[in-house]
Input
Amino acid sequence: MMEYIEQLHTQRRIGELKKYLNEINPADIAQLLETVENERTRVFLFRLLAKENAAQTFVEFDGDTQENLIRAFSDTELKEVLDELYIDDAADIIEEMPATIVKRILKNTDPETREAINTILKYPEDSAGSIMTPEFVDLKKDMTVEDAFKRIRRTGLDKETIYTCYVTDASRHLIGVTTVKELLLSDYDDVIEDFMETNVISINTLDDRETATLALSKYDFLAMPVVDMENRLVGIITVDDAIDVIQEENTEDIQKMAAITPTDTPYLKTDVIDSWKKRIPWLMLLMISATLTSQILTTFEDKLLQASVLTAFIPMLMGTGGNSGGQSSATIIRAISLDEVRFKDIFKVIWKEFRIGAISGLTLAVVCFIKLLLFDRIVLGNDAVTFTVSIVISLTILVETICAKIIGSTLPIIAKKLGLDPAVLANPFITTISDVVSLLVYFGFAVLILHL
Amino acid sequence: MMEYIEQLHTQRRIGELKKYLNEINPADIAQLLETVENERTRVFLFRLLAKENAAQTFVEFDGDTQENLIRAFSDTELKEVLDELYIDDAADIIEEMPATIVKRILKNTDPETREAINTILKYPEDSAGSIMTPEFVDLKKDMTVEDAFKRIRRTGLDKETIYTCYVTDASRHLIGVTTVKELLLSDYDDVIEDFMETNVISINTLDDRETATLALSKYDFLAMPVVDMENRLVGIITVDDAIDVIQEENTEDIQKMAAITPTDTPYLKTDVIDSWKKRIPWLMLLMISATLTSQILTTFEDKLLQASVLTAFIPMLMGTGGNSGGQSSATIIRAISLDEVRFKDIFKVIWKEFRIGAISGLTLAVVCFIKLLLFDRIVLGNDAVTFTVSIVISLTILVETICAKIIGSTLPIIAKKLGLDPAVLANPFITTISDVVSLLVYFGFAVLILHL
Output
């Protein structure tokens, strides 16, 4: 596709180029234009887009491209793009821009829009208010279906979605909801009040944006109404924005679970120093915490010298403990994210993980015991792997698996209860903790059974 | 809420109970009824729901509850619920039911619906075809806006969404698309052909369902049209189902990344044996693979006895390698899922991770070196931690970090290229591999620098 565009461009076949570009979906044009290396060519191509396409394409660019384009725009051009943007998109863009650009953007929007943008920007990050748009269709309860359609036709063009219509009273309280589908299937002279849904599900501006999107998904809504403390309707969250939030939250969870500070920049666009900044603090913290394991090993150094065969199984034991705990923590962190597990379930979780840990540990211990005696001792001829040594290793597996499962599943629940982020307590942290537990259990059994 | 329902039920205030239940959103009724322990009470309460509510509630139940309800239903009741279901929901339910129930369901659906359900069931699991519904609004290009609205009013009630309308030719080829918003904002005598979007984005029945949902999200669609090999429109995927797929795929990815066989049963509803079955194979595989580390340690046992201080740092070194690799693999696996990184990017990825690994490794190595000499040697008075030993440990950190980052980032890309699941190559597997690498690097430097 890009080759064809470049060809038309070099041959100055501008008419054809314009027609070609405007037939592509804005999400695709944005992707194409981002691959254009030459800044001036990109601005040139962007200027060929029809007004509505231009705004829709602009929204899809990443922050850097948007910034560069705005710098290249005249005030008139900037105003044209801004006029076509939805309020929530404009607010998103402004959040990413340096102060000088923000000033220019706000200067080129009309006062009403500016106020609406500022309202959204004032809500805390990650709140429902910060991702809503004030552009929704509101109806009055005494309107007929015909009135409603008239209103939608008159005001609908600038609304992000028209399909869910909200019924408000004189003080803008949300009192009902209906859909264009219902309107279409009703008679023209039916009155809204008679068929609107009055048990309206809504969320508060200060609710977490994740709560809002989970609710939207649970109720299969196309938009979730957002109300303020006085139950006045102030905005809606549309389903396409909700999907973006879901994907971002999932990416963040996965990053945190891998001990990375979250970022929403796509991988190939993050620079090396940025990636380093997101990753090094956690690596450092985990490395320093591992000092504990070194301490334990130093303490037991004499005993290890007496039974040096024990050293060979340290990595395997720590790996097994870490993996067992990691499974539990990942499962529970995800269940918390999906609101399937709450603090009140903590004892159910402990009891369940105890049982899973017990049968998993037993299975692993038995297999390991057989493997040690058959493979390590007989096949590899490692005589140091005696019956009692195998007992010590297998018992350690059983106990550490149970401990790791309980630690891995309860810490995220407790973290959530304390207002911390459960996703941080995933594999890397659980591994560090379970390493310590595993070593203590190992040496405990060694001292007890091998009489070191 | 449940207390009030139980109170009305015990007092046999059935009229009030019915009114109360029918005012609650079906997604919430389903959650409430699932908490009812007594099977007969649940069936009784379910029977109080109005026909449309009943079907919508039924869809929200988990498989077990659905099965139990169907067993309690008379044929008439079953038919009533089935008639209200959308085809894709009916297909979903059937997939989970035992053969006898499936037979009863199919017996109680009309032949046309039965055929439609069977068509969906025939598509491979995880394909776009398997999650689509054939109930969409189709228009003809020579219809006027007025004709279109007439058609929507006549057929819209049973469609899962009416807001995106598809224009097909006589052989059902998809030739255009328009929306109710556009129809509402047009004049009654405008002809569809004149304003419909002709660059229709669609996906194929056999495409992966994840591809379908990513595209729907990219283009902000409310529904994604699904076409067969001859570009005939056979169904649509609605946005609410797309969100469910996105959440399921994310849960699956997180489970795989924690070395668990994926399941879509919520945590508290999975039984212990099921959880064990999903977790034990991977724990076992990883435990057995760790035999390699035991082998390496056994090989170097004599050398470790000569410099027993080295043992104390094995867990820390392996932890750091595992964490470094885990960060990279999680980042890349997520980027692959979001289609941000493809096989062609592999060299870019390697080069980037090499640099991130180099500066991260260097930072860690320097901090570790200082910590070893200041804390371990001076504060803790561990004289065995000499200058050269500290050099060996720090160099190992530098090299293992670089190796782990490269391994962690490239293996998922290669896995994807080979048609395997990249998510499986996450932290646990990368850790096992990086453990081996770390130990080899460690003993390599030890032999070289300490002349063991």
Notes: Chain B has 23 helices and six strands. The mean pLDDT of chain B is 92.
